[in-house]
Amino acid sequence: MILKANGLDFACDTAGEGPDVALCLHGFPESRFSWRFQLPFLAAQGWRVVAPDLRGYGGSSRPDGKAAYRVDHLVDDVVGMFAALQPRRKLLVAHDWGAVIAWLVAMRRAVDLDGLVIMNVPHPTVFRDLVSHYWPQRLKSWYVLFFQLPWLPEWLLRQNRAEGIAKAFLDMAVDKAMFPPDVLEEYRRNALIPGALTAMINYYRANLGILDETAAPIDIPTLMLWGEEDKALDVKLTEGYGPHVRDFTLVRFPNVSHWVQQEAPVPVNTAMLEWLRAKGLAG
Q: pLDDT confidence of 50, banded at 50, 70, 90?
């Protein structure tokens, strides 16, 4: 399915039908394929599930230039996708960079959401407060500064048919069996599309000031799912949400990495089901 929104084309995987839409936003260096375990599950709960390749990724439009990947445009993409889908109820499910976008959609009240599911990315203010004094997280975030360099990150990740992309999954994963060669090939192939790696890394280059954003507390029901063995984001980032999210539920998964919804799909889907039922969001 191609979804037209905000002047761009978004390649989407879909499941289910009906008036209620769950929009699933992937992260770096993933694609809509990362939601393969959640699409049928959410459809079974009564949602019409739409998982797009974000701008710059996979089969979606790939605007040129760093400025095209500023977070204001990324938030507008979500607004445009929901507007095109014309849902009755709106659920936003997001991981990694998709979760950054989802936090900002909720913080800005850009969309009248009914629920928010966040996976392994903290609220921007929680991250800012921790990284200001906690050196372990500063060290874990080294790659953000590396990605500010021109051309070199793309060149390194592209070598040997995007071996660096495959290693990003395997090196971080606890259960490496969840990332067999055919799964890694999907991500490698996407990264090798001309211009894709630059677009993907431009998310980091265009948004260094994102932590300065402030907002009133989020009112909508929010579920955070967190793999505790995340090598990029410290588990301390799951703490201190009281001032920022009024209806907050946290579920942590031991022995699971940053790639939580792909590595532990059954526990993740089970936790979502319990939360959806508790919040009146299951069909």
A: very high
What's the confidence (pLDDT) of residue 213? 79
Catalytic residues, by residue number, are 96, 204, 258
Q: Please write down the HEC assignment for all residues of the chain.
A: CEEEECCEEEEEEEECCCCCEEEEECCCCCCHHHHCCHHHHHHHCCCEEEEECCCCCCCCCCCCCHHHHCHHHHHHHHHHHHHHHCCCCEEEEEECHHHHHHHHHHHHCCCCCCEEEEECCCCHHHHHHHHCCCHHHHHHCHHHHHCCCCCHHHHHHHHHHHHHHHHHHHHHCCCHHHCCHHHHHHHHHHHCCCCHHHHHHHHHHCCHHHHHCCCCCECCCEEEEEECCCCCCCHHHHCCCCCCECCEEEEEECCCCCCHHHHCHHHHHHHHHHHHHHCCCCC
Q: Which residues contact 169 (CB under 8 A, 6 or more apart)?
A: 179, 183, 184, 187, 259
Evaluate if residue 283 carries a pLDDT over 80.
no
Write down the pLDDT at residue 212.
78
